[in-house]
Amino acid sequence: MSPPAYDHNRAVLCAYWILSGISALQLLVLVRFVVWNENLAHKIPLSWNRVATTFNILLFLIPIANVAVYLTCIVKILVNMTQFNLFSLQTVDAAVIVSDMGVSSFMLCYVNYTWYRGKPVFELIMPAIVPYLTVGVNTLAVLFTVFPLPAILQEAGHTDWFSTNGEIWIALFFTIVTVSFDLAVGIIFVRYLRSLYKEHGVIGDERNEIISRYGVASSCVGVLSLVLFSVAIGVADAGTNMALMACVFGSFSVVHLILFLMKLELHKKRDWDLEVSS
User: Fold this and answer.
1) Neighbours of 156 (CB within 10 A)
2) Engineered SS bond to 100: which of 36, 108, 148, 152, CB 3.0-4.6 Å?
3) How far, rounded to the nearest angstrom, does the alpha carbon of residue 217 sit from its chain's CA centroid?
4) Distances in Å between the alpha carbon of 87 and those of 21, 24, 95?
5) Distances from the Cα of 22 to the Cαs of 25, 62, 105, in angstroms?
6) What is the pLDDT along the chain (278 residues), one digit of tens a residue?
7) 3-state secondary structure at position 161
8) How far is 100 from 149, CA to CA, in rounded Å?
9) Is the distance from CB of 266 to CB of 207 less than 8 angstroms?
10) In this structure, what DSSP letter does residue 129 have?
11) Would you tell me how many other CB atoms lie within 10 Å of the CB of residue 211?
């Protein structure tokens, strides 16, 4: 009979394998959609400039970062299972660094995608805070680059306070900052949706409504995952911590799905507008 810890590791391991497959599938579906539905189906010559737009690149990078996170989590779990002595300690340390870089890359892409997609709504609803949001997004880009630093210092052998405890404090700091961003943009999206329905009917355009609806959804998932992450940091039980972190990382794929569905609906709206105007 397997010990409970082993069974728990195996369950979380299976979850990460499934998440890896889902993210890989999301990437393939996205590539197919961009290449075929947005270009070839409309008899538009395929070109790098049309495929490698800012929005597409950010959406491409998210599942790639997610797969990196999930696979490195798999490596760390396999190391903890005594019958799988397949990896050296150096490999584990490298996996931690790659995992942190994957999380950092996901957050960078998510924040920038939300910012660029939602900017028309932000400028319409609260134009006064757009300059501050711009500074905030640029600051986050710099801060997310620092996120893997504790793991890198640990690998380099600097076992001082920063490398041993700094990662927890940095993680908490990023949680607070990212939750603040999610709450800010989520509130703006909600305000826009509420402004659509007035006494004289619906105002605003449908594109901004689509962006706002999916923006609210992704913000809610982001806040929930960051709350779970905060709880996971303070949990002493290893099994519970692993389960919570699997939920946190699993939310990355949910966020990517929401952003892809936003892209899909915006594409349908564009096709409808072209059909009506022709």
Assistant:
1) 10
2) 148
3) 13
4) 22, 24, 10
5) 5, 12, 18
6) 455 555 678 889 999 999 999 999 999 999 988 888 766 666 667 677 778 888 999 999 999 999 999 999 998 888 776 555 556 666 777 788 888 889 989 999 999 999 999 999 999 888 888 888 888 888 888 878 777 777 677 666 655 545 455 566 777 777 788 888 899 999 999 999 888 876 454 456 788 999 999 999 999 999 999 889 888 888 878 888 889 999 999 999 999 999 999 999 998 888 776 666 65
7) helix
8) 9
9) yes
10) G
11) 22
86 by DSSP, 3-state: which? coil
**Conformation bin of residue 43: beta by default, left when phi > 0, alpha when psi is -120 to 50:** left
- Type of residue found at 57: I
Q: What's phi and psi for 27, nearest 5 deg? A: -65, -45
The Cα-based distances of 213 to 37, 172, 182, 184, 266 in angstroms read 23, 28, 14, 15, 12
Q: Which residue has the tokens 């913000």?
A: 219
For residue 222 the two structure tokens come to 């982001």
Q: Which two tokens stand for residue 145?
A: 């680059």
Exposure of 147 in the CB half-sphere (CA atoms within 13 A)? 26
Q: Nearest 5°: phi and psi at 72?
A: -70, -35
- Coil vs helix vs strand at 39: coil
Considering only CA atoms, which of 255, 223, 269 is closest in space to residue 113?
Answer: 255
Q: In angstroms, rounded to a whole number, what is the distance separating the alpha carbons of residues 8 and 208?
A: 44
Handedness of CA 152, 154, 159, 163 (dihedral sign): positive
